Amino acid sequence: MTLTPIPSSNYLRLSILSVLGGFAMNTAVAAVPNVVDNSNSDLPQVELDEIVVTATRTPTRTSNVIAQTRVIDSEELQRYQGQTILDVLQNQSGINISQSGGMGTISNFYMRGYDSKQVLVLIDGIRYSSISAGTPALNLLPADQIDRIEILYGASGSSIYGSDAMGGVIQIFTKGSNVEQSSVSTTAGYGSHDHYQVGITGQLKNDTSSLSLGVSHNETDGFNAVANTNSFDYNADDDGFESTNASIALQHRFNDALSAGISGLYSDSTTEFDSAGALVPNAYSDQKNGSANAYLQYQTPSTLTKLSYGQSIDESTSHDNNSINYQEGSRFDTTQEQVRLESQINVQPGTVIVGAEWLSQKLDASAVKVFNADFSDFTATPYSPEDREVTSAFVGYQLADNYYDLQANYRVDDNSQYGNQSTYNLGAAIRPLDGMRIGASYATGFRAPTFNDLYYPGFSNPNLKPETSKNTEVFIEYDKGYQISRLTGYHTDVEDLIGGNTNTGEAKIKGLSLTSDWYLNSFLFGLGYDYLEAKNDTSGSTNKGNDLVYRPQNSGLIYIGYQQPTFDVRLEAKHTDERFSDVSNQTKLDDYTLVNLSGTIYINPNLRANLRVENITDEDYTLSNQFGTEYATDGTNYFGSLTYDWF
Fold first, then answer.
1. C-alpha to C-alpha distance for 131 and 137, rounded to whole angstroms
2. 295 in a domain, yes or no?
3. Mean pLDDT across the stretch 126-134?
4. Which of 204, 297, 366, 434 could form a disulfide with 331 if both were Cys (CB 3.0 to 4.6 A apart)?
5. Contact, 235 vs 227, CB < 8 A?
6. Between the CA atoms of 96, 102, 108 and 110, what dihedral angle is there, to the nearest 10 degrees?
7. 269: helix, strand or coil
8. Strand 625-626 relative to strand 629-630: parallel, antiparallel, unpaired?
9. Quick one: average pLDDT of 239-256?
């Protein structure tokens, strides 16, 4: 059985009518007392107006942030037992993915018209990505070791965090960053394709300290990753994935002013994949990924100063036909070290933020095959150079008021490869009516060339300069506590896009983003709709006017949930429009709608059961098509787990 896709125009009409209806409904609902009844402490609590730090570097309510934000909290993450952070993101508004098979296989995500190289990913404030390919391996990081995820849409993050944030920032907070009480928790789960997970987390808390330690193992046989039997890469076998994961968080308060902490996330995984099937039928990749961070913080009534040091790794060794030596494999190991000193100063009114950063990026890669003209032979060629440093300084101002909000940031990055790059952001919002907020912002951004862009043997161009962007955004928002609805419009010009080892590419990205989330008594429901035009705008190019790859013009989601002290359930559907998988727009991927069901039963205060059933309509769809190889996706699948907590 398949679900008939809803036409994109109907999605737009339904979304707008829902929100307009919601606005009209507010007057009637506001007249009824206790619409949200929090008197029952046993009922799971939902906080629509949450505190975020990614958008401004300071703890700020989402209702005071200028840019569009999204928070995925620990309660929501419970629904993704046995899955990765990429699985979590693909169910969020405005984010779409491509993937070459099942769990752990090569993937990419797209947010507001940008691909993952242009969206900065942080783990506890530390940069995380491959500096060779530029993409963060979120398909390898486990959701069960994560406490929360904050998503910042748009370019405002560039002037706060620097390179790679043209399309937004995704920050991942490891489990244990917010320990409420001492406990031990064990989880065991099983699902489709012999997928199982086991894990244990221990948390200890007293008046001055907290400690969290977690470890888990995740393994699945997977499914055949290639859909078309005539593909050169076809190999009709299951492609499995396994990972062993760990997290740690330690925080200690020496006195009322001084505190310190460490945190870390680590994943050791193996992914099977098809690579010229008949030649290498058992191709696989070993990966090590993660981040560690340590900080020292000093706080007074008017200032907060924080010194932090962190390191992230992205290490991958592939054993396939592209390896010069199959046993040794093709190796690409990224190490990023980061030191940051920042101060937040209460200037009455508002907060000033000043800081400096030092970043070291290193690549340790095996030699690459460089073929001669007729491909009869190759030369093993190493990368050179294999490191770079970035020194940065930034300053910002933020004002969160009952009637208006302001944000301004400026940052300068000095890169050892291409010199200085500066970015800035200006944003403001006012509240003309109770519950209503109107705002606008302007931001510049940039993406530094990756090591593959600059130095890939045989295709290098060390003179490449950063990609740059100019982004304008306006929004209207309605927030009455039990619901938040927001309509955002944006327009972006992107210049100096890197392609074919040149900076000649240009693009225009514009769109509308509509979100609405409601919490009425025990019911949760909401929707999201995104209209996107992401076009090639390169002068003289035969592809000018074409859609950028894997960017659907229309996408939307809708969900409804019900919560009680003994159980909760949520039904969600996400629609993705047609999109092209090639720059010439000759290969089009069909639209699809995925319907997922998730639920939790609280058997007793210590024991709960989770179940997630995905693609319950057994939709046949494709996420990636590369050079004639159409990669497979899963049909109806499930994962269930039991969790026991000792308090």
1. 11
2. yes
3. 93
4. 366
5. no
6. 0
7. strand
8. antiparallel
9. 96
- Kindly report the pTM of this predicted structure: 0.91
b/e per residue, 472-511, with b = 16+ CB within 10 A? bbebebbbbebbbbbbbbbebebbbbbeebebebbbbbbb
Q: How many residues in the chain?
A: 647
Read off the pLDDT band of 444 (50, 70, 90): very high
The CATH number of residue 520's host domain is 2.40.170.20
What DSSP letter does each residue of 101-156 carry, written as one string? SSTTS-EEEEETTEEGGGSEEEETTEE-S-TTT----TTSSBGGGEEEEEEEESGG
Tokens describing residue 307: 């010194």
Residue 2 falls inside a structural domain: no
Q: Which of 127, 129, 80, 124 is nearest to 109 (CA)?
A: 129
Assigned domain for 1 exists: no
- pLDDT for the residue numbered 232: 65
Q: Confidence band (pLDDT; 50, 70, 90) for 43?
A: low
Which residue from 47, 69, 46 is spatially nearest to 56, judged by alpha carbons? 69
Distance, in Å, from the CA atom of 477 to the CA atom of 62, rounded to the nearest integer, reads 11
Q: Tell me the sheet residues that pair with 187.
A: 199, 643
Beta strand ranges found along 448-591 (DSSP E): 467-479, 483-499, 502-520, 523-536, 554-564, 567-576, 579-580, 588-589
Find the Cα–Cα–Cα–Cα dihedral 311, 269, 263, 81, rounded to 10°. Answer: 140
Report how far Cα 239 is from the mean position of its chain's Cα atoms. 24
Handedness of CA 73, 78, 79, 81 (dihedral sign): positive
- The distance of Cα 153 from the centroid of its chain, to the nearest Å, equals 10
pLDDT at 571 (0 to 100) = 97
Asked if 121 contacts 175 with a C-beta cutoff of 8 angstroms, the reply is: no
Buried/exposed 254-265: b ≥16 CB within 10 Å, e otherwise: eeeeebebbbbb
Give residues with Cβ within 8 angstroms of 233, minimum separation 6. Answer: 226, 274, 275, 276, 277, 629
User: What secondary structure letter does DSSP report for 537?
Assistant: -
Instruction: Let me know: does 114 contact 136? Beta carbons within 8 Å.
Output: no
Q: How far is CA 398 from CA 199, 304, 342, in A?
A: 41, 15, 15
Distances in whole angstroms, Cα of residue 590 to Cα of each of 94, 153, 575: 18, 26, 11
**Ramachandran bin of 627, using left for φ above 0, alpha for ψ from -120 to 50, beta for the remaining angles:** left
From CA 149, how far away is CA 79, in angstroms rounded? Answer: 14
- Any domain includes 581: yes
Token pair 């940031």 is found at 409
Q: Tokens at residue 529, please? A: 């709709």
Single-letter amino acid code for the residue at 42: D
The structural domain count of the chain equals: 1
Distance CA 520, CA 517 (A): 10
Distance of CA 492 to the CA centre of its chain: 20
Judged by DSSP in three states, 11 sits in helix
Question: Which residues span the domain enclosing 46?
Answer: 8-646
Q: What is the pLDDT of residue 407?
A: 97
Dist CA 461 CA 498 (whole Å): 11
Query: Computed over its alpha carbons, how large is the radius of gyration of the chain?
Result: 24
pLDDT for residue 163: 94
Task: Find the largest Cα–Cα distance for the chain.
Answer: 79
Number of CB atoms found within 10 A of residue 300's CB:
11
392 pLDDT higher than 80: yes
- Pair 288, 315: CB distance under 8 Å: yes
Q: Which residues contact 374 (CB under 8 A, 6 or more apart)?
A: none
Count of alpha carbons within 13 angstroms of residue 156, beta-carbon side: 29
Q: What are phi and psi of 110, to 5 degrees?
A: -130, 130
